[in-house]
Amino acid sequence: MLFSRIGQHPADKTALRSEVDQISYGDLLHRIDALARELADVDVLGIALDNEIDWVLWDLAALKSETVCVPIPPFFTKSQIDHATVSAGITHMITPNGMVSTGLARSATIPPKTAKITFTSGTTGTPKGVCLPASAMMNVASSIYQMLGDGFASTHFSALPLAVLLENVAGVYAGLLAGCTVQLTSLHNFEPQYENLHGLLKGANATSVILVPELLRSLMKQVMQYGPLTKLDFIAVGGSRIDPTLIAQARQMGLPVYEGYGLSECASVLSMNVPGKDKPGTTGTLLPHVTAEICDDEIMIRNAGFLGYVGDTATADDKAPALADRFATGDLGRISEDGFVSVTGRRKNVLITSNGRNISPEWPEAALLARPEIYQAIVFGDGKPHLEALIVPTRPDADIKAAIAVANAGLPDYAQIKDFTLAAPFTAQNGCLTGNGRPKRDVILKQFVSSQNTSEPAMNFYDRLVAQTSVARHALYHVPQLVDGLSGQISRSTYVAYLTEAYHHVKHTVPFLMAMGSRLPDDKRWLHKAVIEYLEEEEGHEEWILNDIEAAGGDREAARNATPNLETEVMVAYNYDYIARKNPVGFLGMVFMLESTSTQIASQGADAVMSGLDLPKSAFSYLFSHGSLDIEHMKFFEKTVNQITDPDDQAAIIEVANNTFRLFANLFTAIPHEGQRKNVA
C-alpha cells in the first residue's frame, strides 16, 4: 500500500528534503529498489544514522525487501546499543561509513512476520525490543492519513529522532502516504531543549510536526519571543499526560496543538484529536483500525499487531496469537460514550495515600506542568497523608508557591500538592530521564528524596544553587562570542580582546576575597580558612593572562593600561558594592559563577581556539590551568557552601551567582566579535 501510494504522487514533488539533498517522489521508488537489492543477503539490518535522507531510504528498503529492521536511537548509550545489537542478532549495521557486517547471527527469538524491532528505552537501563509486523505499522499510518486527509499533505518537519517509532510511523510513513514533503534536519542542528525549533520550523515552512510535551513548552516560549508560526496547521503532542490548560495556552498563541496517545507495542498511535473532532483533556478518538475496551480501569487493545519482545523464551507460535488478541497497555483510563479516550496514568505509578486514596501522579503533574513557572515536576507521596512534589523551576525567580496554588485550585483536596522541594533539572545525562524524555521515577526519587525520611530536604545547598542558577548559566553559554569561541571560530583579535577584559576583572579577585574576609561577622569567621585558601590559589593569575596576550601576539602593557569595557567595570563594581553594602558571604556566588564556568568551558575553549588560530599552547596558560584547576576548586567550594545554613546567606549567594552570570554574559557580548574569521591581527 505504501509503495503504491508513493508511485501515485506527482513525480516532480519533493518527497524527502534535508539541508544538503532532496529526493522527488519520481526518484524515491528507484532509490528504494536499488537499496533493497543490496539487502538480498541481509537477515537483520540495524540503522545507526542521524536524521537524514539515507535513514529513511534504508528503512523503506528494508520494508520493501522484507528485511528485519532495527533502528538504533541516537540517545542510546554504548551498552544499550550493544544490548540491542546482540539481543536482536543484527547481522549488518548501516553507519555513517556505510554498511558493515557485525558477524552475528539473527536471533532465534524474533517472531515470524517481524518487519521492525523498535527498542524502547523504558524506565530502566536495559531496552526492550518490540517486534512489529509491517501490517501493524501500515494500519497506523493509513489511519492517521484517513483521519487528517489531504488537507495536511504539505511539509512535515521531523523534530523527533527517526528511530523513535512515533516519528517513523506517524511522521514519515503517514506523511509519505499523504504526499507530504518530509523535512529532515540533523539532530546536531538542534540547540539544547530545542531552543532553535521555532527558527527551523519557520525556515522549512513546516505545516505539521510531532512533539513531546517538553518540546511543546519550549516552542511556546519561543513563540512568545519570536512571534507566531502561521504556516503550521497541525502539531501532534503525545508521550505523557497534558493538562488541557496547556493546550488552551498553546492555541491562544496560534499553535494548532492536538493531543494523542499510543504505545510502541501498538505501532505507536492508538488515538488522537484532529481538527473537527477534538476534545482537549482527552487523547482523542481511537484510530479507525483500533478496537479498545476498559477492564478494571485499564485500557485493553484488541488485535494490537504486537508480535512479542525479542528475547522472549516462549516461542513465537505460542506467544504471538495470545498477545495479538488482547493487549494490556498498563495505562489507566476511560472511553466516553462519544468515543474519546482519556488516559489517567500508569497502573504501576499509582500512589496510595495513608488515607486510602488511589492517585495517578500524572494527573497533578499535568496540572503543575501547565504553569509557566514550572519546567519539570515529579509527584510522590505513597503511604503519606498528602502529596509532595519535586519541582524544577523555569527561572530562578519563579514563584513556585503561587504556581502550585493555581494548580491546586483545579484539583480535589486529596490530589493537591501540600509540600514541594526544588530540584536540579532531570536529564538523560544524569540518569533521570529516558532517551525520549520520560521520567525515571524510581531513579529521581532515590536521587532527590532521602530514603530514610522524605520530609527532610531532598537537596543540599550546593545542588539548590546549581538548580536555581541553571537558566542564567544557560543564557551565558549561548552568547555568540562564547559559542564561536568553543568551536574555535573567533579571530585572534577577539581572543586578545577577551583576555584583556579577563585581566581587568581577574586582577580584582584577590582584593575581592580580602574585602570579603575583612567584613565577615564573628559568627562567620570559620569561612576565613576558605578565603585564605582561595587567596593563595588566585594570587598572580592576572599576570598569566598578560603572558597569554603576549604569546598570542598582543601588547601586554597596552592591555594592562587599557580602559576596560563598561560591562566589565559594572561586574567588578557590583561585587565590591555587594560585599560592602549587603552581605560579604554573597561573593561566593561570584566564585561559583567563575569556577563552574571554567570547569565547563575553559579547556574546551582553549583547545578549540588554539587549533583554529594556530597559536602556541603558551597563549592559553590561563584557560588550560583553570579548566583543570577549578575542578578541584569546585569540590572544595561544594564542601564549603554546604556548611552554610543561614537562609539569608544562601539567598545572597544565589542572588550574586545569578546576577554575575548575567553580567559575565554582558562582558562577553561587549567584546568585538569577528566570528568565522581566523588569524586577524
Structure description:
With 681 residues, the chain is an alpha/beta fold. It has three domains: 2-342, Rossmann fold (3-Layer(aba) Sandwich), CATH 3.40.50; 350-458, 2-Layer Sandwich (GMP Synthetase, Chain A, domain 3), CATH 3.30.300.30; 468-669, Heme oxygenase-like (Heme Oxygenase, Chain A, Up-down Bundle). Helices cover 45% and strands 17% of the residues. The chain has 25 helices and 25 strands. The protein has a nine-stranded mixed β-sheet. The relative contact order is 0.06. The model is unreliable at 314-324, 451-458 and 675-681 (pLDDT under 50).
Core attributes:
about 675 residues, alpha/beta, Rossmann fold, 25 helices, disordered C terminus
Quick overview:
This protein is 45% helix and 17% strand. It has 681 residues and is of the alpha/beta class. It has three domains: 2-342, Rossmann fold (3-Layer(aba) Sandwich); 350-458, 2-Layer Sandwich (GMP Synthetase, Chain A, domain 3), CATH 3.30.300.30; 468-669, Heme oxygenase-like (Heme Oxygenase, Chain A), CATH 1.20.910.
